[in-house]
Amino acid sequence: MQDADQGSTGDLLGEGLRIGIVRARFNDAITTRLASACLAELERLEVDPGDIRIVTVPGALEVPLALKVMAASGDFDALVALGCIIRGETYHFELVANESGAGVTRVGLDHTLPIANAILTVENEAQAWARADDKGRDAARVAVEMANLLEDFS
After folding, report:
1. pTM reported for the whole predicted model
2. For residues 138 and 1, what is the distance between their CA atoms, to the nearest angstrom?
3. What is the separation of C-alpha 49 from the centre of its chain, rounded to a whole number of angstroms?
4. Active-site residue among 10, 92, 95, 130?
């Protein structure tokens, strides 16, 4: 019996993988930065640019629906959710953060498809900028690693 910590854990070779990215336009400059970092990392991991599809939606609440349509297409090995939710003075932050996060998780589970959730939920814009590059790169690595892991089970 193989130890759960062995095998494909950490496999970050993206060659041949098809990746879909959904980017929310709300807080556009930050989500553009997330996308740039994600794309650069996917390239570094040898995902062919022709195997990457990027779509944009108005905001974080629309991300799960676009992910669902992409997942249902069967065209992708993994998906990435990119967005930025900055706390304001009302309960709206909690609503958007909780519902978008739950929606992203549900799509992944319903379709047995890895989804790297890089929807930032931060207190202020400075925190978002401080996290954008790392979170974009992390999302690319998570998508590739999980796509490879699930491939091992097929």
Report:
1. 0.93
2. 31
3. 16
4. 92
